[in-house]
Amino acid sequence: MRRMLTTMLIALALTACGTNGEHGISLIRENVPLHPARLSRAEKGAIIKYVRAILDRNFDKDTQLPAIPEIIGYEKVFVTLYNNGKTRCFMRGKADRGQTSWGKEDIASAVKRCADDDRFGEKVKKEEIEDLDFEVTYLYGRRKVDGGKDKLKTDFAPGIHGLEVENGDKHATFKESVPITKQYDFNETIKQLCKKAGLKSDCDQDKDTKFFLYDSISFIKVNKYNVTFETYRQNAIFNAYYINKKLLVSRLGMVHNWFLQNINSNTGRLQYEYFPNEDKYEESGSSEIRLMATSWALAALQNELGGEHLSPIINDMLDYYLKNMRCDVDEEFGDYCVLDIDGGKIANNAFMLLALIEYPIYPNSEDIKKKLAVGLLRQQKGNGAFLTRFNSDGESGKDYYPGEAMLALMKYYQETNDPKYMNAVSKAFPYYRDYWRGNRNTAFVPWNTRAYKILYEVTKDKNIAIFIFEMNDWMVKYEQVRESLYKDEIGGMPKRSPRYSTSVYMEGMNDAYVVALAERDHRRTVRYRDSIRNGMRFVLLTQYTLENSYYLPNIKNSVGGFRYSLIKNNQRIDFAQHAVFAIIKSIHSGVFK
Q1: Which class for 170: exposed (0-12), middle (13-18), buried (19 or more C-beta within 10 A)?
Q2: Is residue 112 part of a domain?
Q3: What are the residues facing 216 on neighbouring strands?
Q4: pLDDT at residue 8, rounded to an integer
Q5: Which pLDDT belongs to residue 20?
Q6: Is a pLDDT exceeding 60 seen at residue 189?
Q7: Residue 279 in domain
Q8: Interatomic CA distance for residues 34 and 319, integer angstroms
Q9: Is the pLDDT of residue 2 over 70?
Q10: Helix (H, G, I), strand (E, B), or coil: what is residue 360?
């Protein structure tokens, strides 16, 4: 797996390189004046070697300096050194702009100041140099933001723009990475920047305060790899066409390890939410439905990868939830069971049924599955709709729970061939089709697409295919990012705030793609294929890997998990759950070779 990650990192670096790097040219244009944005991949690597050599000179004055270009056209350069997720030093270059080879001297001065930086415990020691990650950041294109705080909030993109505050003779700058690595939102970024400048924390309220934005470019060499790559919001950007089955399997292996790494030792079940920048877990607000759904994902993941490493967690989670079953006999339906916890939602039965279908070795699973399925059948009304809670007559959560229940029933039909389960979904189909047409929303689409895809495969009913296309055409057109100022957002969903839910939509989109193939609908096959390629690229960009987690205090607990978004890095079990299914479906649909 390490070899695969290294190969992928090289591909990422090739994609992120400058114009010359794209053609593989390794020539270092020594003393040639170049803007930071025009540096080739090889030249970025040479600058990192230059940083290392300057640092080495603190301990060995005879260290030779490599050739690098003369960098011009920027305002500030920063050098940051990390060791196992901890910042060891961070300094800006302060060379005299009037001297010869100012660009080189500016880097050298940043490194020398870094070597004397003891703000993070102690100065860098000779014996730790081999373990350091070296990062260089250039800020350029300084411009004043007029229009107050509202305009600044509109123009400022965390991870993209450097930010400077100035009031009288007091000023301070954050490089673009600060909001990402510190997990500051906009207001906290302003507050902390004001404090750094020695101003009041609400200095943005002072009419004499000025703010300036910078464009940025950063590149890093992580010590585990002999490759320098450009970062974008502290991430390693790559093209969708670099994704293939082998990469997807390797990413499944990483999330598999993440699950194993994040078990609550007191309960034996998974930790609900992890905050990588603080290295702490949070259980408040945890959702039992999400935990049950994750037990299903764990079983599916283990079936995909093989082995039995996840079995203890799966068993513990199933034990914990199935002990809450309430069973009875119905005159019409016979024996049934319901999981009357967390509000008694029908999704409880659905996810436990789905988990047991994926994990049939659980004791007495055949009997439990049948009773859970019958418990769902009892919730269906004469018009096809499902009552969404076992202890009430309402239909709240209509965008989620019925789709989850119908998917479970169709999966169980595939296992048993008992027509009553398929008939229940067939009966529900026209009701929920009419509902969605009057209440279009994103949440409804993936769950219902997944259920109806199986129904379509069984019945070959073109009306089902037509509705699947109707929902997913709408999703692609109105909810997926196709154009953005920020290249990492392409493929994300929803448009207004692309985030982890992209995985959910990719689960359904893969099934829509399979139906389009079956219907020989070339136009939609291409549309959905491209949507999946870009969407899965976005999903993979939200996963922590060895190359984009270098600034975290506990890399071991973070790698493999999926973040809320490209800029907000909390990891929750349902982010991973949906990503697992999106990846598995992308492997099986044939989109990626």
Answers
A1: middle
A2: yes
A3: 139
A4: 44
A5: 35
A6: yes
A7: no
A8: 63
A9: no
A10: coil
Give burial (CB, 10 Å; 0-12/13-18/19+) of 475.
buried
141 DSSP assignment: E
Q: Kind and range of the H or E element at 479?
A: helix 462-479
Q: Is residue 337 part of a domain?
A: no
Contact 229, 163 (CB under 8 A): no
Identify which has the larger pLDDT, 402 or 121.
402
**Distance, CA of 534 to CA of 506 (rounded, Å):** 10
Backbone phi, psi, residue 144, to 5°? -80, 140
Helices and strands (DSSP H and E) totals, the chain: 20, 14
Give the dihedral sign, CA 355/360/363/365: positive
Asked if 177 and 548 count as a contact pair (C-beta separation under 8 A), the reply is no
What pLDDT is stored for residue 268 in this prediction?
A: 84
Cα-based distances in Å from 97 to 55, 106, 379, 448: 22, 8, 75, 63
Domain membership of residue 561 (yes or no) is no
How high is the mean pLDDT of the chain?
93
Q: Which of 451, 507, 505, 511 is CA-nearest to residue 477?
A: 505
Instruction: Domain of residue 25: give its range.
Output: 2-231
As for how many domains the chain has, the answer is: 1
3-class secondary structure, 417: coil
Distance of CA 347 to the CA centre of its chain: 25
**Two structure tokens written together for 37:** 């944005």
328 and 374 in contact (C-beta within 8 Å)? Answer: no
Confidence check: pLDDT of 16 > 70: no
Q: What is the Cα–Cα distance from 411 to 356, expressed in whole angstroms?
A: 11
Concatenating the DSSP letter of every residue in 65-128 gives PPP--EE-S-SEEEEEEEETTEEEEEEE----TTSTTHHHHHHHHHHHHHHT--TTSSPPPGGG
By 3-state DSSP, what share of the chain in percent is helix, strand and coil, each rounded to 5? Answer: 50, 15, 35
Q: Which amino acid is at 355?
A: A
Closest by alpha carbon to 191, among 216, 165, 213, 168?
Answer: 165
pTM of the full structure = 0.92
Helix (H) or strand (E) holding 28: none
Predicted local confidence at residue 283, as pLDDT: 84
147: left (phi over 0), alpha (psi -120 to 50) or beta: left
Output DSSP code: residue 36. Answer: G
- Examine the pLDDT at 14 and tell me if it is beyond 60: no
